[in-house]
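Figure 2 data, in text form.
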Amino acid sequence: MIFIIALWVSLSVVQTESNVDNSYVAAVYEHTLILNPEPHVPISRLAALQHMQKNLDVYQEQAALAAQQGAQILVFPEDGLQGFNFSRSSIYSYLETIPDPQQESWNPCTEPGRYNNTEVLQQLSCMARRYSLYLVANMADLQPCPLKTDPSSPCPSDGRWQFNTNVVFSSDGLLVARYHKQNLYFEEAFDTPPKPEIITFDTPFAGRFGLIICFDILFHKPTVTLLERGVRQVIYPTAWMNQLPLLDSIQFQQAFSLGANVTLLAANIRNDRLIMTGSGIYTPFSAIYHHAHRGDPEEGRLLVARVPVLDPLWVGQSMATEEQAEVLGESTSSTTTDSGFCLKDNCFDSPPPPVSSSFTFTSSMMYDPSQFVILNDTEGKLNVCDGTFCCHLQYRRLKGSEELYALGAFAGTHIVNGRYALQVCAVIRCAGMKTSSCGQEVEDAESKMDIILEGKFETKYVYPSVLASRLVLEQPQHLEKTEDGWVTMKHSNMTGGLVTACLYGRMYHLDNE
């Protein structure tokens, strides 16, 4: 299913000429990857090319469909050509040496003879050229030692660098950007670049875009460095394994777009066995996304939408404000929220209830020992603290059910499958009626709530999300940040039961402590 949500204005397919001038058509493709069934077994270059051709044929079909809908930029997911779970040696035949566009100009489609073993680069280049669109794909890069960009860095033991890599081609097939993934996630086939790469590229239709890959989105380099340099449009190929209650793919994709105030073009893999699904086109004002559910056919999904240009330096652009995306094609769900959320200290009709003195307990949420209090009443005010970090909730439960909800707080360093420092406030539906089930994965809920969730964070990087039943995103109706660290999220008029409402604070400055 394709979902559309919008903040502040209702969906409209009618746009003025000036709006079109300050917008562009973006496409992302969630790809059902054709895998190598034995990724740890080395194969010949010919066999690797035959395997990748199966995925390239799908890319070709989707590029044609995107072009028919007017797409000017198309993003494919991480690992979408070769797959994953390779060893360092077994991926070798999939590697191509990708020249650095910052050092030389090369169009693989029109100059195929310049480099050997670049068949995939040539096909991607010709795809971009044939359909006259900017094309972003992810592939495996081989670079000889020493690195031209960093000749003093020590070589890997086998004498070559292997990188998880984004490549970008302009609409005439020119290779315009190459980015090597910085934050690897259990990828033994690849090396971490000796120095983080901060890579952007410019387009004639929307100005500047920045490049990141999957796990990068949780870290300062390169992601926040791009933001600090003024990038407001981010390209995001990913192979993201969903984990509730806080890091479902679309949940954090939207949260990042809102918290960082950027457009995010996110393309994920579809693989049910690995719990991979969830792609979208997000702006601070709207979200067009797809998330498969259990039992859905395991198939790819192309999303195409017109979105406002956010690059402030783009020539001829008057700053995009409260515009939203126009979906090009059929949608299956459309909800619109209203910005008229009360801005007073208390937004509910009745006087604010007293703060409840609830029993605090510890339960695991995302493998982190979090502090919780139960929402015992139909409405109330609650506080919960993890050390000196406290979360505050005012709530009103609108639909009665026997579901158990809790307010949770976590402040500390997450250390399972990655290491990063957090401050988190979250309202969650517990998996059962016991407190020990709070923090476990839940996809469905019946209880709708009006909430005001807030906390005082020691970081300005706080990513907000509201996730409803069956993994439907809701756009928070009001977000407010103060200079002294207070972040407030207010939301009401939910379309479905509440699964999670979260303020996800990333304490980048504490990651190495």
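Caption note: The radius of gyration is 23 Å.
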